[in-house]
Each structure stands twice: as C-alpha cells, then as structure tokens.
Amino acid sequence: QVQLQESGPGLVKPSETLSLTCSISGYSISAGYYWGWVRQSPGTGLDWVAIIYHSGTTYYNPSLQSRVSISVDAAKNQFSLRLSAVTAADTAVYYCARAKYISGFGYYFDFWGQGSLVAVSS
Amino acid sequence: EIVMTQSPATLSVSLGERATLSCRASQSVSSNLAWYQQKPGQAPRLLISGASTRATDIPARFSGSGSGTEFTLTISSLQSEDFAVYYCQQYNNWPAITFGQGTRLEIK
What we know:
The complex is a heterodimer.
Chain A: E1 3-7, E2 11-12, E3 18-25, E4 34-41, E5 45-53, E6 58-60, E7 68-73, E8 78-83, E9 92-101, E10 107-112, E11 116-120
Parallel strand pairs in A: 2-11
Antiparallel strand pairs in A: 1-3, 3-8, 4-5, 4-9, 5-6, 7-8, 9-10, 9-11
Chain B: E1 4-7, E2 10-13, E3 19-25, E4 33-38, E5 45-49, E6 53-54, E7 62-67, E8 70-75, E9 85-90, E10 98-99, E11 103-107
Parallel strand pairs in B: 2-11
Antiparallel strand pairs in B: 1-3, 3-8, 4-5, 4-9, 5-6, 7-8, 9-10, 9-11
C-alpha cells in the first residue's frame, strides 16, 4: 500500500520560504508516476500547486510559478516543495499525492498524504 | 482554465436514500473526470476516475456517469460513513487540472 507523509514547519513568517517534504513508503519514486502537491484553504478550495515526474520534469500552477519549486530525492524516496515570498494567502493545508497520468490528457491523484497545515503569520 | 461547478453546495439526504451530486465543466473534458470524498480532518479519497470507474475498494453503491460537460455522482443507499464533502476534478487539460468547489452531503 502506497503511503505518503508530509513534514515541515507549521508556521512561516510573511516573505519567508515555505518548505515541505513528502516521504513515500510502499512504492519507489523511481519506479514511475508523477508526484504532486495540492493545497486547500477555506477560501479557495482545492488547488493544484506543482507536480514532478520521477525523472525530474516539473510543472507548476501558473499562478504560483514565479515562487514555487518542486524536487525529487530518489535516494531518500522523497519529494519536496518550496514556496517563496509567502503571504497570508498561502496559509493552507498542503497535501502531497501520487498523480496517475492519463496519456494525452492530465492526471488525477490516487494516493494522498494526511496533509500539513501551514500558517503564514508573524 | 476549465472551471468546474458543483451543485448543490449542500445536499441533505436521509440514511438509506439516494444522493445525486452534479458537476459541470465550463468546456468539454470528455470523460477525464474524477470524484473524491473528503471527511473532516482527512485527505481527499479517490472514488471515481474516467467519469465512471470506481477506484480500488470503493463500494458499488457509488457510481459515476456523464461525459463532456455534465457529470453525476450517485450514492444509491446512503450509509452513515458517506456523509462528507465531495469534489470533482477534471484532468482533460494538461497540466492545469482543476477541482470543483465541493458539495457537502449531510444527514437529513
């Protein structure tokens, strides 16, 4: 059974960088699939943040593209998210998830982490 | 961006009754539509992909239908564990997938 677990600070100051890591068990990140981050805030619902292929190819939500990066550490079977210059609007629960890609189209998420609440506040 | 609109925002249904949730896309997404269930304090759980294919271990009382711009999630006989928020998600538009705003299913 694929399991994902987010880790990282629960509080980040405005203008600083949010960093989260997703640790995977039950599946090797190098074996395939895309891996991604989704965030959820009361005001905006579920929003896709970024996805990465196991080889390192990345895609970002255009609304966040200038501030976000996603990376893979295959040796640790993890992937990570960094979001810079955060504001209160970035306060959300951040989920990591495995993305099932449908050739020629897009992807949906078949396994999710439990979520990590990140608050942006001074 | 493809906008997904779910209705109603809240649906009140009695135990054992049928629930019908709707999801509309602002443009055709073919059958590239997924449904998720989310309970309080938990992550979303995949129910349906391809508009109508149940995910592993999802009970048969959950069914999905539709294509193009109009989709329906039906729960045939509501159990107590089915009361949750349900989201649709289109994945026709690479890589910009989008979610609906959710329908809250509550006990009547």
